[in-house]
Amino acid sequence: MAVHHHPHQRPADHRLVWRRSRTPDATASATSTDAAPAVADTTTASAYALASLRVLTGFVFLWAFLDKTFGWGYATSSGEAWIDGGSPTEGFLGHVAVGPWESTFHSWAGDAWADWMFMLGLLGIGVAVLAGIGLRLAAVAGTVMMALMWVAEWPPAQHLSDGSPSMSTNPFVDYHLIYAVALIVLAAFSAGHTWGAGRVWADLPLVRRHPWLR
Fold this sequence. Notes:
Elements: H1 9-70, H2 90-93, H3 102-108, H4 112-131, H5 135-153, H6 175-188, H7 198-202, H8 205-209
Helix pairs in contact: 1-4, 1-6, 4-5, 5-6
């Protein structure tokens, strides 16, 4: 039995195969094109969100320095300001009433070296974070400072040394820990590049030779 081939059917089959092979590519191309703006928008939104977090966090540290230095009447009254002879650490460290370092913090309270270290730390961290420069150094310094303040307040304790309630609301997480993590996140994601001088700072020859200064 002879099998007859019809030439006019072959081109139709080829066109069908060609169209089928092209359809997924066209769909993928359209999907990629649509996804590109979404990725860009997400990246931009993330950059702005981190920049906002950076500015607010930096302001917290800088404001604490200014208020303690000039006594603007918020946490520090004018008569107790640093420029008026007051001690920025005596009030906080001198009233530590719980934790394993209670006596140590009492011995540090009011010492000149403790005042200078604390105030320079607040100023340096505040300026660096607001400007978006030296975020890695700011993260290290800020984490150490927040860790010491966390130990001074000692959230795990439900009672103070005299037996009175500590008023702690969480045995581990408090605002000191949140600030420390925020500083680490800002440094890890180079948050100074948006609304800051991070890119200019990173391009400096000294910083390029020593990346830990970023």
